[in-house]
C-alpha cells in the first residue's frame, strides 16, 4: 500500500483553501487494508438527526474554534462519532475540498487505520459504520431491506479518492481531465467557488 500513500501525498493540498471566507467543515476518509484490498470506512447517519437522517457519509463535522486545523477537526469528529482514537490514524493528506449544499467548505482528510478497528457508534449521530471496497458506491441495509447509493459530496470524495489511488479511467463519466487530474480538480473547485461567490453578491 506504499504506492497508494505516494499517490495520495502527490495530491495533498495542505491548507491552501482553508482561508476562503466560507464556514468550514471536515470529513475523514478512513482507509483500511483488509484481505490485501483497500477498504473505506463509512457511516450511516442516525435516524434521529434533523439533517440527512439515514444517509451514508464519512465521519466528520463543522470546525470548532478550538480545533487547530482541518486535520484536528476530522480526527475529533471521528472520535466522537465512531470511537476512532486520533493516535490510531496515520494521516496522509488533505484532498481538494468541496462545497456542500449549506455552502460549507468541506475538506477531506485521508488517513489509514488499523484493520483491527471496531466501530463504536455514537447513537446520537451514527446508526452504524461499515466497510466497503474503495470502488463500491452502494450500501445494502439488511435491516431495512434497502440499498442506498452513495451520493452527493460523499460520492464525490470517494470517486476522487479512487481516481487518485488507482489512476484508472472509470466505467462512468467524471468531470475531470483524467490526464491532468490535479489541475482539473482545482479548476472545477475554483469555478464552483466563483459561482457561489457571484450568487452571494447578487443577493446582497
UniProtKB/TrEMBL annotation:
GO biological process, one term: nucleoside diphosphate metabolic process
Record protein name field: Nudix hydrolase domain-containing protein
Family: Belongs to the Nudix hydrolase family. PCD1 subfamily.
Record domain Nudix hydrolase: where: 22-154
Record organism: Hirundo rustica rustica
GO molecular function: coenzyme A diphosphatase activity; magnesium ion binding; manganese ion binding
Alphabetized Pfam families for the sequence: NUDIX
TM ranges: 148-167
